[in-house]
Design a protein that fits this description.
Order of helices and strands of chain B: EEEEEEEEEEE
Low-confidence stretches of chain A: none
Largest interface: A-B, 22 and 17 residues
Strand content of chain B: over 45%
Largest sheet of chain A: 7 strands, mixed
Shape of chain A: globular
Structural class of chain A: mainly beta
Oligomer: heterodimer
Strand content of chain A: over 45%
Structural class of chain B: mainly beta
Radius of gyration of chain A: 13 Å
Radius of gyration of chain B: 13 Å
Largest sheet of chain B: 7 strands, mixed
Mean pLDDT of chain A: 96
Number of strands of chain B: 11
Order of helices and strands of chain A: EEEEEEEEEEE
C-alpha cells in the first residue's frame, strides 16, 4: 500500500496567515492526489483533485501543487472558516489511501 | 443539488451483521461510481469499497474483503453495504461518497458501533 505522510500533524495560525501543509507519498503517484477538509463533527469536503485543480465552489485562497511524491496545500490568507483538519489522498493505486491529517488551529 | 443520506448504523455485537444504506439525489445516479469510506473515532479516513455505475465492477480493501458486500439499486438511487462478521475495530462513521478515485460529494455519515 502507498503510505501518505502529512506534515505537520497540527499547526497554530492566525487569521490572514499563509499556511502550507505538505504531503509525501511513499512512491510516485504522478498527480493523482486530492486534498480534503474536515470540520469537527462534519463529513469531509473535497477541495482539490489532480494535485492542483480546485473543486467547484472552493475559494481561490486554496491552492495545491506538486507531482510524483511531494505535494503541498497552501492557504494564502487563512480565514476563520478554514480552521479544520486537512487530509491528502492518493488515487494512483489501490487501495486508495489517506494521509493522517493536519489540524489547523487558531493561534 | 447533490445529496447523499446514509442510514442503518447502530450498535451491534461482535460477529453480528448490519446493512447500511445511502439514498442519492440531485444527479444521475447510474452514471457514477459510488464508494464507502469510514473513519474510526478520532482517527483518519479508510477507503473500503466501490462499485461502478453499471454494477459490473466492485473492489474492496483487504480489511473488509470477504466480510462486507457493496451493492446498488440504480432505479432506487440507493447504495448499500452489507457488513457481516463485524469486529470491534469496525467501529466507525461510515460515509457514502460519490466517485471512483477522487470524491466530490460525501454523505453526513452513519455511526456503526461494534461492542459487546
Amino acid at each position: 500500500d502507498i503510505q501518505m505522510t502529512q506534515s505537520p500533524s497540527s499547526l497554530s495560525a492566525s487569521v490572514r496567515d499563509r499556511v502550507i501543509i505538505t504531503c509525501r507519498a511513499s512512491q510516485d503517484i504522478s498527480n493523482h492526489l486530492a486534498w480534503l477538509q474536515q470540520k469537527p463533527g462534519k463529513a469531509p469536503e473535497s477541495l482539490i483533485y489532480a494535485a492542483s485543480a480546485l473543486q467547484s465552489g472552493v475559494p481561490s485562497r486554496f491552492s495545491g501543487s506538486g507531482s510524483g511524491t511531494d505535494f503541498t496545500l497552501t492557504i494564502s490568507s487563512l480565514q476563520p472558516e478554514d480552521f479544520a483538519t486537512y487530509y491528502c489522498q492518493q488515487y494512483k493505486h489501490y487501495p486508495l489511501t489517506f494521509g493522517g491529517g493536519t489540524k489547523v488551529e487558531i493561534k | 443539488q447533490v445529496q447523499l443520506v446514509e442510514s442503518g448504523g447502530g450498535l451491534v455485537k461482535p460477529g453480528g451483521s448490519l446493512r447500511l444504506s445511502c439514498i442519492a439525489s440531485g444527479f444521475t445516479f447510474s452514471d457514477y461510481y459510488m464508494t464507502w469510506i469510514r473513519q474510526a473515532p478520532g482517527k483518519g479516513l479508510e477507503w473500503l469499497s466501490h462499485i461502478s455505475g453499471s454494477i459490473i465492477y466492485t473492489n474492496y480493501a483487504d480489511s473488509v474483503k470477504g466480510r462486507f458486500t457493496i451493492s446498488r439499486d440504480n432505479p432506487k438511487m440507493s447504495l448499500y453495504l452489507q457488513m457481516n462478521s463485524l469486529r470491534v475495530e469496525d467501529t466507525a462513521v461510515y460515509y457514502c461518497v460519490r466517485g471512483e478515485l477522487d470524491f466530490d460529494y460525501w454523505g453526513q455519515g452513519t455511526l456503526v458501533t461494534v461492542s459487546s
